Amino acid sequence: MRRKKLLIISHTQHYKDKNNQVVGWGATINEVNFLADYWEEVVHIGCLYHSEAPKSSLPYIKTNIRFVPIPPYGGITVWSKIGVLFKIPIIINRVVTNVKDATEIQLRLPTSMGLFLLPLFSFFLPRKYTFWVKYAGNWQQQNPPLSYRIQRWWLKKNIAKCKVTINGFWDNQPKNCLSFENPCLSEQDISRGKEIANTKSFHLPFTFCFVGRLNEAKGVPEIIEALKHIPLSKINKVHFVGDGKNLEKYKQLSSFLGDKVNFHGFLESGRVHQLLADSHFFLLPSKSEGFPKVIAEACCYGTIPIVSNVGSISHYINNQNGYLVETDLFSNVLCSVVTENETLLKNISSKGTNVAELFTFENYKSKLENTVF
């Protein structure tokens, strides 16, 4: 028996494609499409941008999903930050209008609108529904932006009287804060991934893959610098999936790789999975993370993660199923890894597939039923 109405409120970026169809950030849209099988109606309130949709965008494929647009907000300029004040009434109106008849409501944080939506749900809206917050950021971030700090404090104190799903398992974790794996894989992905992982061999030369925004925070400069210290004969291909304002700069810096490096831009999910399946190592020396789903996607295909020890990454990745490194030691570790024997690498690869099984949509639904609802 399906539940009645799920309302999701997020800052997920949506666009209109060339056919005037609404599309959105692929990872979130996949999740919404899955959840729609278990509700009669799903309403997703999210930001609508009037620009070209990136290739990673996907459409809603279930007829019981309704998208409600809100204006984009935020930015780096003073005016853009002040401008959000004029958008607050529009956002609140869209939320209040669509709360009617909702049986479950999910608010996805952290985001600037959490500063006024948390008080709205805490004090002003009658609670005739199950309300939960999905906190997708780094729950233990040491120096978060002020708005994130306020939202995290609000949730830790349970002022909103709701369950909060977070990345990782932490000391002194409040009872209302539940450790959850953000879903990104289907049972079919797991089955296909195991087949690929079982046949993957770790012979030189190796293929490397990065997926994410191309910027310093994600560790792209560290990856390029580390690759300089590896003989070209040991490198088959290097895939960079994603985009950013420093794209041309990174292309220049990696020119020593010649035709061995590919900058793909944003790609649709299926193509990302194929590149991960074709790779031996996934590289992410990031400065700050919650838990990037793409690590689980890499593990699904037996691709060994070489990732930084930040956020909750260490709660899933260790030196048995990958390489957990400090960012300043990334180059040393990568140079060492490519000299390891095939048997050791194969063993690490096979253990990584166990991590992937935690991040299925089916596991996510089961945990929601058993702990949130």
UniProtKB/TrEMBL annotation:
Glycosyl transferase family domain ranges (all copies): 199-327
CDD domains: GT4_PimA-like
InterPro entries cross-referenced by the UniProt entry: Glyco_trans_1
Residue ranges of coiled coil: none
Transmembrane segments: none
PANTHER family xref list: GLYCOSYLTRANSFERASE (PTHR12526), SPORE COAT PROTEIN SA (PTHR12526:SF638)
Name this protein carries in UniProt: Glycosyltransferase
Organism: Flavobacterium solisilvae
